[in-house]
Amino acid sequence: MHKKNKITIFLIEDDPSQLKSIESLLEFKGFVFQSFKNAMDFLTLSDISRPAVLVSDMRLPDLNGVELYKALTDRGEDIPIIFISGESSIQQSIDAMKQGAIEFLVKPFDINDLTNAIEKATRLEHKRVNLKTLLKNLSPREKQVFDLLIQGLNNSELMKKINVSLPTAKQYKSEVMRKLGVKSLSELMNLSNQTV
């Protein structure tokens, strides 16, 4: 495992030759990966170690990509997904992106396209994992303030919503931003939009 690739790639592909081809690429690039021939085998994992990226065929024998994404979100998993497919339906691509896919690649795809998609997903995953770690440092009240701030509430709306004085609302806002390492509300919104 190369030090730069401290991420696990979960690969779901039912076509044996395609599976072998992608595994060879991941191995060559120094990624740690785990392969599955169907979605249900992947979903039986009791713990998906993070940081991680999922590369999955859109059409599997047991679940399609949309059903897989729903199963993951029902479990509270927000792992970045790259869908691959042998079909080039524009609607399928749009549906995949609506379901939260980072990328949709049509087979046969260029290995550089897959590598670039994995790098993009890896950056997003590191941001998500980092934000989750930072959010653990917030008190329950600060987490509530964070949730309200990313909804776009201003200081006076925040004050009314959590039933505190204006100076106290400003103090909570300031503390949330300090703990998350952001200097402005726009930075906070940008951080949450990219990662939550």
UniProtKB/TrEMBL annotation:
<feature type="modified residue" description="4-aspartylphosphate">
    <location>
        <position position="57"/>
    </location>
</feature>
<dbReference type="Pfam" id="PF00196">
    <property type="entry name" value="GerE"/>
</dbReference>
<feature type="domain" description="HTH luxR-type">
    <location>
        <begin position="131"/>
        <end position="196"/>
    </location>
</feature>
<dbReference type="InterPro" id="IPR000792">
    <property type="entry name" value="Tscrpt_reg_LuxR_C"/>
</dbReference>
<feature type="domain" description="Response regulatory">
    <location>
        <begin position="8"/>
        <end position="122"/>
    </location>
</feature>
<dbReference type="InterPro" id="IPR011006">
    <property type="entry name" value="CheY-like_superfamily"/>
</dbReference>
<dbReference type="InterPro" id="IPR036388">
    <property type="entry name" value="WH-like_DNA-bd_sf"/>
</dbReference>
<dbReference type="GO" id="GO:0006355">
    <property type="term" value="P:regulation of DNA-templated transcription"/>
</dbReference>
<dbReference type="InterPro" id="IPR016032">
    <property type="entry name" value="Sig_transdc_resp-reg_C-effctor"/>
</dbReference>
<keyword id="KW-0238">DNA-binding</keyword>
<dbReference type="GO" id="GO:0003677">
    <property type="term" value="F:DNA binding"/>
</dbReference>
<dbReference type="Pfam" id="PF00072">
    <property type="entry name" value="Response_reg"/>
</dbReference>
<dbReference type="GO" id="GO:0000160">
    <property type="term" value="P:phosphorelay signal transduction system"/>
</dbReference>
<dbReference type="InterPro" id="IPR001789">
    <property type="entry name" value="Sig_transdc_resp-reg_receiver"/>
</dbReference>
<dbReference type="InterPro" id="IPR039420">
    <property type="entry name" value="WalR-like"/>
</dbReference>
<keyword id="KW-0597">Phosphoprotein</keyword>
<protein>
    <submittedName>
        <fullName>Response regulator transcription factor</fullName>
    </submittedName>
</protein>
